[in-house]
Amino acid sequence: MMQFLEILTGAVSAVKPVTGNTGYWLILPTVIIAVWTALVGYRKGRDIFSPLCFFSGFYLLWMVGGYLINYSDRSFHLAEHYRTIPFYILIGYLSFLVGYLIPVIESKKTISYKVNYKKYPPIKKNLYVIYFIAFIFSILYYAMTWRILMSGLIHQTRFEAISGMGYIYHVMELFYYFFLVYLATKWFFKSAFTVFDWVLLILALLPLLIHFHRGPIIWIIISLISYRHYISKKVSIKKLMVLAVVLFCLGAFLGNLREGNKNMAIFLRASNEIKVHVWNLSRHMSKSREIGVPLGIKPVWMAVALLAPGPDLDFSRWLQEKFGYPDIPSITLIGEGYMSYFIWGVILEFFILGFLLRQVYYLFVKKPGLRNLCIYIFLLTQSCSAITFGINKVLVSTIYFIGLSIILIPGDTVLPADEDQGVSTD
Q1: Is the same domain home to 196 and 341?
Q2: N- to C-terminal Cα separation, the chain
């Protein structure tokens, strides 16, 4: 860990020199370190969904891949901030590793666990209650925002519809988040899938289909795969790579369909999807002085402020108005940290993510109960989403989900293997 701290300190002190013409090469050590880390993480536990494997893979795709595509397309010119982007990509990943390498308090005693089937009926009832509440809020949200949503292209008007309605919108999000928990609960307790479950599935997907919001749809599929990976059968690297290609093509196809670009090649669309986030990062860095950077906790505060009734903007729309962007830009975790406290903001945000993922993953590995599983998968997917959209986009939903998971799911869904238990009832 001390070696990483020395590297990080040296890199911070070297920020001036790398902003010259030599700055581009810093993307190479990021590739080497991230690939090596992912391989080591996989060999250690043979777990493709461990933070070191999964987070590193997404970081390589969106940050490194995005930079390389922009560079090869000659999208970047010789302005200083373009040459510093590889430096921030490297610093962000090193900060994640430093946070991840902080040791946890380990128990030397290894315990074998078995499922506690007595907990299934009360958990199922709890999930029905939260599902019903989220359903009511969904109806309320669409009843109040339908005219706004239908006033233009829905993938643009949905941002406007959330303004002043965040306190309802984030409860509505629980509709599909907790359907994932419901499915995981059925699998965890080996309960059969019924017609009623299919009805719940359709109801859960309706808000996403109305919005035509690709991100949650993709993350739902990834979450379901990861639940099956841990509960029933592990997913091999080969299968995961095939699934990744299929999901990426699906995302590109849905993007074309949503925006009416039916003639755009899937490969070209996929390339644009990868590079857009680093391109937006470069735009934010070039214009950051116009809004009085550093902004401090403003991005996070604006996310929390959406929970209060009133015409509040989320951070993306606020940037659009400040910079005069024709579109609503993605933020990226690097961009959010940079606009908050420059390099120290980048270090802090990545450090926090690395630390939290390590602690939650360790809790799940040591006691693989349903609550620990659901919290870990949610935090992992939201952390990967934050790479491209920032913590401000996932903060409120993460707090809601973790808080409700602790309340609704008992911590003793697994018991030491030498204790008695009941049988499943459905």
Answers
A1: yes
A2: 49
Residues 210/212/213/215 CA torsion (nearest 10 deg) = 130
Question: At 168, which amino acid appears?
Answer: I
Instruction: State the Cα–Cα distance between residues 327 and 272, nearest whole angstrom.
Output: 15
Q: Please state the pTM of the whole predicted model.
A: 0.88
Residue with the two structure tokens 């940037």: 319
Residue 89 shares a structural domain with residue 135: no
Shared domain for 144 and 283, answered yes or no, is yes
Collapsing DSSP to helix, strand or coil, 190 comes out as coil
Q: pLDDT tens digits, residue range 10-25?
A: 444 444 444 444 567 8
CB atoms within 10 A of CB 344: 14
Q: Could you read off the pLDDT of 208-253 as tens digits, one per residue?
A: 666 666 778 888 889 999 999 999 888 888 888 888 888 888 877 7
* DSSP-assigned beta bridge partners for residue 416: 113
Residue pLDDT, tens place only, 296-333: 888 988 888 877 776 667 788 888 888 888 777 888 99
Nearest to 347 by CA among 31, 107, 173, 91: 91
Do 52 and 184 fall within a single domain? no
Tell me the three state secondary structure of residue 45.
Answer: helix
According to DSSP, residue 291 is labeled G
Would 107 be classed as within a structural domain? no
Cβ atoms of residues 134 and 203 within 8 Å: no
> Does 86 lie in the same domain as 119?
no
Range of the domain at 12: 2-101
DSSP 50: S
Q: Is residue 423 part of a domain?
A: no
Q: Where are the beta strands (DSSP E) in 70-190?
A: 113-115
Domain boundary residue, one of 72, 101, 130: 101
Closest CA to 393 of 331, 310, 351: 331
HSE (CB half, 13 Å, CA atoms) of 3? 0
Q: How many Å separate Cα 106 from the centre of its chain?
A: 27
Q: Is 310 left (phi over 0), alpha (psi -120 to 50) or beta?
A: left
- Per DSSP, 79 falls in state -
Q: How many domains are there within the chain? A: 2
Residue 332, phi-psi category: left (phi > 0), alpha (psi -120 to 50), beta (remainder): left
Say yes or no: 374 and 397 in one domain: yes
